[in-house]
Specification:
Radius of gyration: 37 Å
Shape: elongated
Helix content: 40-55%
Number of helices: 40
Structural class: alpha+beta
Length: 1029
Amino acid sequence: MVAISAVSAVFTVYYLAKTPLLAQDSSGGDDDARPRAEGRDGDRAQVGLIQSLYNTESDADYMAWLVSAKGRLDGLASQVQHLDWSAFTGFTAEESEQPATAELAEQPADSAQDIAKASSFKDRILRQLSAVQAQLNQQIDETTAALGHAVQNMLPPQLQRPWVAECAQLCIDRETHPELLKTTSVRVSTDICGQEVDFQQVRAKSIRDNFAKFIGVSAESVDVRDIPVIGIAGSGGGFRAMIATLGSYRAMHQAGLAQCVTYDAAVSGSSWAIAALHTYADGNPCKALESVHEAMKSSMFSTSNLTEFVNEHDRIAKHVFANIAARYLLSAAKIDDAPADAAELQPGNASEQATLADRILGVAATQGYRAIDALVPEKYRSWLDTGRPAPAPVSVDELLETAKNTLRSVSVPPLSIVDLYGALLFRKLLVQHTKTDGGKPELHLDPQWVKLSAQRAAVDQGRLPMPIYTAVRHFIGTDDNDPDKEQSHAYQWFEFNPYEVGSIDHGAWIPSWAFGRPMVNGREQFKIGEAHFGSIIGAASSAFCASVKAMVMEIYMAVPSVVRTAMDPLLDRIEHGSEIAHPIPPYTLYNPFYRTEAASDGVGLAELGNKPFLSLMDAGMENNLPFAPLLRPERGVDVIVCLDASANIEIMPWFARAEAWAGDHGAERWPWGARPWAADPLRPSKAEATLDQSTLSGTRSVRESMNRRIHEDNIRCVVFDQPVASSPLPKKGSVPRPMTLLYLPLLPNSKFRDPKFDPETADFCGTFNDQWTSDQIDLLADLASFNLTQEIERIREAMTVAYKRKRAHRLFQEGLHRATAAKANPKGKMAKGNDLQAWFIEYQDLDRSDGQAVIMPEGFERLCGALEFDMDGIEPMALLWRLNAAELGKVEFAGWESGMRAMNVHDTAELKQAIRSTIDDFGRNAALFKSFYRKMFDYLRADKQKSVAAEDAVAVLPIVTGNGWVFEKFVKFLEANGDRIKTVSRDQWQSLLELSKTLKPDLSNYSSEDAWPAMFDELVEWLKKPETA
């Protein structure tokens, strides 16, 4: 997300200075993050801003004095308002301008008179203060207007109104934005959209040959349905992450892996790399790196560079700044206050006696369709909505007028630093820079690159993966907006892809081409071109909008441990307030889900639709790896390749947070317990600490092994393809096919051409360093390429296993369908050998080095889960017996095949019924139960011992024999004599079954002279004891 920077330090000091004040106000938080400034701190900040705006020192001083005076006057008025005026007595009668009220009449005469005098005196002071305040306000307004006009005249022509209007015109240009002719709506669903479903199918067909080549099989043998859905997860990390991501993509491209990817997901800095690949680079990382080499030679924050760009590249500059220009003009336009409800509407030519049609026409002439909605009752509006498009302005003036007539209050969300930051990023990284002989690079911009929706052209054809850009919304409040409940805060994931923009956590979506339009109740208020891609990239990488806690943590992670110890008490003291305070406000735009009617379907959506504006920021605030969009169950991702270029990589809680998200959203396929690092995260939240304690118990050795392989064995790719901890999700029968997770951290490599190069410590690799030399770019990109190339065989093996798993799962499912179809025929065919094998592979241990086809205990437990068998019941034992298992929990294919054929079963439902029928037959067929009972002894023998442990017999006998009284007494006998009897022999085990059939409850027919094992003599004597009976 972010590395330590001067910005973090400055805002940390600023916040700590205000901590007591913020602590008092922390209970009044809103559900959107916003900066807090109060009292004299706010005055000083406003004065400083004024001094930075005006070039004339005397003008700035005068304006600063006005603001300062007004602030002091406001403070004085507040003090007057809250003084205890009952203490003021001794006024003459003439000083009171009004008599005592009726309420005062009940009090003693002297006291009532004093209070009346005090109230009158207070009112006189307040009126005088109000008059002075009004004069100051008028003076401030006039001075601001005059100075603003002077500043406007000093601006170069490119930044004055005509040029700005020409920029804004591009936002409603029909050639660039043909979507202006379309009307949008809100989609509420957790499923992916239909266009993405189609893309998955097209992409699978497109990559079949490449995937077959990558895993080393013939293309003809690969069914497109078996190709694993691969998602790349690029991390945050600013320019370091962007260059490293491009280096990794270059290696994947050369190895043929990039051509097999379905999704490109990114957080923050890696978003810039993905954006380049999906605009001018057209999927070619080498082409993107060529442009980056030229673009990184100069700073994006240089005023002279910006001026030169505007002067020399007018057409490109207008496209770059079009969105900012439109938002500026909209915010600067004076919007007439719209009536709050129908009673306040005053139609131009309507009267109380006018017909409904006349009233509607009159209102439409002056207030537009927005007013009609307020006037016409809800039940009569449906006919108005039919075929009624929102207005689509054709000129800037018409846009401003439309905004006046259709919006009730604020015409446009506040313009923020993120808008400017996004435009500067776009100019630097998404305007293609081509090297020339003259020194200055040649710049090229296709107008379609400013639109996220334009990236779907290559995606629709299956030529490129689908990009997914991410951001988060910082929710502060209660889910149901109940002011009486204690406030909480959480980061909610949003994603931007060429098809849709929406909330992963709320399941609300809008077409990407409509993102940026003002929406109310799921309907457009007016049409404007889609949100500028630069603004989206700016929001996705706005790490500087971090909370104060995040900024403090940047410093905390960079200082020595002794300093951290000293900082801990301070961090504990400001924990809550620092988590919700954002000194720099995030990117804010129209909330497309504002008052969406579908919001009533759920509390979460109702909360999202409560605000007209939507504030988004860098997703690295929550997780610096974009697991959330790739873990959506409906997306069906099989393999995630994590390219992690984060700072402080070993102590960040990205995997713990991903696991928490997976648990909250039912992502069953997450490899539970996956952690690549042995170190615990610094200062984890209470939820993260609780999760680690519950989930990671017993996995410390696994984590240490992974950590050792990375540091000691120089491994640069860690594979998680099986859970190493239990799932927190409730069991749903069948155990899901696990996801494969490949983790590639950006670390130094002892085999690299510069083994001492460490991106973590190299100064030029800082997150916000925007000027790099070509040698520096090559060094970092080459290291990322080298690390991935070194691990390509490990990656290839993981992809092969994922492919085989998916293929086996499909074959099994097809076998189920064929078996279901055959049920109509009583003489239905047996499952074919291939079907039985596919079913077997679903639970087979695929990691055995000896190549044997065996289901091991873990796979057998998953099979029992699919059958909904209790592992502590008799069903698993009966299943092992019917599948001819030689050992407890271990099934070989030969026994599987013969057992399935003997039971004549074709699917899970039939197998479940067959085992239940077998257990029922035990009570009717003594010979059948005897065979089963004797086999249990073999299952319980450890390492082929001649006897079984008495404690194992105590555990299993009640399960396999039910409540027979002889077995029950024998178990109690073993428990009572556990210090002496340690084992049960085969003869004793088998004889116990015969004894249960013959022994009478009064023991009268037992004789020690009979050929019973000696232990039974002891058993009978024990049963005859009074205390036993």
